Amino acid sequence: MQNPIFQIPPETYQQLSDSERHLLDFIYKNLPRMSELSILKLSEEASVSTATIVRLMKKLGFDGYTSFKYSIKNNSHAMEDEPIKASVDTQIREAIRKNELEVIQTIQMLDTRQLEKAIQEIYKASKVYVFARGFSEFIGTELTVKLQLMGKNCEMHNDPNIIRVISRKLVKDDVVLFVSLNGETGELVEACKNFKIKEIPTITLTTRIDSSLARLSDIVIVGYKGEQSFFPEYEVRSRLPLHVLSRVLLDAYVIRLNNH
């Protein structure tokens, strides 16, 4: 399995123990350090047993913690091979690194099986509905327009009341695509619950596999979001991981469409 890290199916995530979920969250938040941490050090810092670490690694598709570390280290050389010029201000270099990290880690975390499932659901759907709120709306709009340009019947909604109403009217031939950074937007979660009851396929682009939206969705594609924000007093965190996910999804869809 290639770099599945957090691209585990929602049903698999549901089967994780509390300690395994805690460990997964710790790894996610400290991903850049993982290649340097021994299993004993990780056990100590995350406050879990080494047995828990090994169990989680196997559920992520690795033979053990060593192969996980190797995968992380093997795929991080791109960042080291392109040093940022020393003449750039330290804080600006930090900002560049933050964005570079989000892009590279998001690509590393992509699970092609989840991506393929999403492509197939979009391809066979009679109509695609894109739901997004806040700054994620820009990504939702781009997804909608490009799918329309490819001949797909697609529409986007960002109004909470309209989202709630439409969520009660969709049919099984439709597919829903959510774009949500944290996966906890109330009206999106409520809509996804309705779709789950009606067995309407749902796809979510997010940065949190443990979110309510991710747990409810049929297909979850996860990106990496750094903890640092340069606008801490506002809820305007970077949507760069979601941009990357949407770009890959659209490119892959075009490739499959041309093959058909």
Automatic annotation (TrEMBL):
Gene3D superfamilies referenced in this protein's UniProt entry, alphabetically: Glucose-6-phosphate isomerase like protein, domain 1, Winged helix-like DNA-binding domain superfamily/Winged helix DNA-binding domain
InterPro entries (alphabetical): Homeodomain-like_sf (IPR009057), HTH_RpiR (IPR000281), RpiR-like (IPR047640), RpiR-like_SIS (IPR035472), SIS_dom (IPR001347), SIS_dom_sf (IPR046348), WH-like_DNA-bd_sf (IPR036388)
Domain of life of the organism encoding this protein: Bacteria
Coiled coil: none
Biological process according to GO: carbohydrate derivative metabolic process
Domain SIS: 118-260
Pfam families: HTH_6 (PF01418), SIS (PF01380)
Residue span(s) of domain HTH rpiR-type: 3-79
Molecular-function GO term, any one: DNA-binding transcription factor activity
Alphabetical keyword list: DNA-binding, Transcription, Transcription regulation
PANTHER family assigned: GLUCOKINASE, RPIR-FAMILY TRANSCRIPTIONAL REGULATOR
The name this protein goes by in its record: MurR/RpiR family transcriptional regulator
